Amino acid sequence: MSNSYMGDWFGKSGRGMGQGWPGAGIFEAMDQLRGQFEQKVGTRMGRGDVRAAVLALLAEQPMHGYQIIHEIDERSGGAWKPSPGSVYPTLQLLADEGLIRAEESNGRKTYSLTDEGQQEAEAAAEKSAPWESSGARDGGRASALPKAGIDLAQAAAQVARSGNPEQVKEAVAVLEDARRKLFSILAQD
Hints:
Arc Repressor Mutant, subunit A, 8 helices, 2 strands, disordered N terminus
């Protein structure tokens, strides 16, 4: 395949669509859509929030690190999923402070609160859990829509890359219908 043929088909951006093709510009539109959603969706919380979340969860029951990450993700409705790089150092710090202890069983460390850790968790229980904070709550409520938008953008981009002209035309009609339906949601009282 010659480069001149690829140049006509792939255009200047190298992303797949030439100027006259029915799907031209879909990648740019999808990139803009994804960029708008990604700017508004953040899953990063402060160090103190990870610490408070770990203490709150361990006050309920002993857990291993992966369980802690999964519980925070689930309880925040997907708005906050701390990385292992933030949870495991926090667990080590809490162990160094004497607030938790680790017991190894079947190759996994399970963490539980010490008496001191239980006291600190009880004192912190008066405040809402970090995954219930206004930022996490708002992000959880709003995170489903940006994720759905990004998923839609990825599907549209796949059709643009792999679909024939008729499939692209059909996809454009689906997207236009979806746009109209979304605006009709806002028009409802």
